Every structure is written in C-alpha cells, then in structure tokens.
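RECORD CONTENTS
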Amino acid sequence: MAKNKISLKQFEKYISNIKKYRDSIKKTNKKLITTITNMNKSVYYGGNTANEWYRKADASVTSNEKFLEKLELNIDKLEKRYKELYEIAHPPAPVVAHSSSGIPAAIAALMNNPNASSVTTTAAAPGGTGAVAGATVGSLSPQETQMLYALVYAEASENPAYVSGDSAGVASVVYNRLASGNYGNSISSVITAPGQFSGYNNSKYNAYMNNPNLMSPEMKAAIDSVAAGNITTSAQYFNGNGKYNTFH
C-alpha cells in the first residue's frame, strides 16, 4: 500500500498546528491553576461539591502537565526531522578548490564533508634552488606558496617553544581572511592587502625570498599542516609581544 506523502510546507504547517495545540493546553492549565488558587483563598467555596471540583481540577492540571512534557518531546523530534529533510531538499553549494581562490583541496573537502575526520591530499615538498623550486602547497601556485612561507617567516616566532603553534596561527589567519572575503579572493591579495601584515615585504620577508633555507623544518611543517586543512584558530587578527603572537 502506497504511503501518503506530504510536502515540506505541509510538514511545517503540521508542526505549527501542534505548537498551537500545545499553547492552548498551557493556557487552559494556567486558568485552572488561577481558579484553584482563588478557591483556596476564598471562604465562599465549601462543602463536598466544591472539594470534589477542586480535586478534579487539580488532577486535570497534573495530567495536562504530563501530557505537555510528552508533547514537547514529540515537537523536538518533529523539528529535528524537518531540519534533516530540509537540508536534504536544499543542500548547500559545494566549496570548489581552485588556485585562483586559494582554497586548498583538503579544506574544500572538509567543508563539504564536516563529518570527515581527515582528507587525503597531495602537496609537493619544496626542494632544489629558489624559494620553493616550483613546488606548491595544497592548490596554491608556486608564487603564492613562496609568499605564504615568507609572510609566516616574517611574522611568527622563531622561539622553539612557540614556533609551531605561532606559525600555524599566522597561516590560519591568512586562510581565515581569505574565507571571509573581506581581504581579497586569493592568498596573494590577502597577504598584500594594504596596511594589514607588517611582515609583508619587510627585511625578514625578503630574506626568506632570497634564501628559503632560513626557515626551520618545524615552521614549514606547521604551515604545510594548515594549508592541508588543519586550521588552528578562527582568528583574523594577531598581535606580537616580542616573544609570540596573540590571536583574536
């Protein structure tokens, strides 16, 4: 036998009607409680008839409260199911990884599948001569990879006690700003945004560009981890105190 099907709009109206029914019971209970309270205070009411009514009214309030508890649970279940069906009917647009957007494939995959614990991605390792010798991180171009490494080298702490967390934090800020859309639509535009990163194009930045071997393995590993999708902070700003950065 075929089951009756209802639309999301009908489902929504059904939930709305149940909520109205719930509210009407609450209103009835409130009136009963008020009447019972007044009876207790009044010397007018008395005798067996009044006492019997009182007992029945009190029992009705108790029964309604128990029924309301069950009704609330059912409303919660219906609303959760409605949300599930709505999300199935209106799936979010997938995030597309592309070099021009600066969104690495791993990050796009995680955004499209939040329940995934990890996503495998391929990132070439720097080698040879030059800043990154044509290698890329995630879906970044060689030039953007150089710029990201150089910026983190210029901004992050080199203290062994803080280098990994600080480097990952600076790289995460870059990606968070990219995701916000307020600083440009590519890693390079985020890094070069006017008046944003004091480390951009300063002496340390240019020193790395001329000699990538200045970067420690720990710093590079932290940056690569972020570019592979392991964002460590939701911050879009940071301030340094001479020892390490504070992210906010």
In short: The first strand starts at residue 238 and ends at 240. The first helix runs from residue 8 to 41.
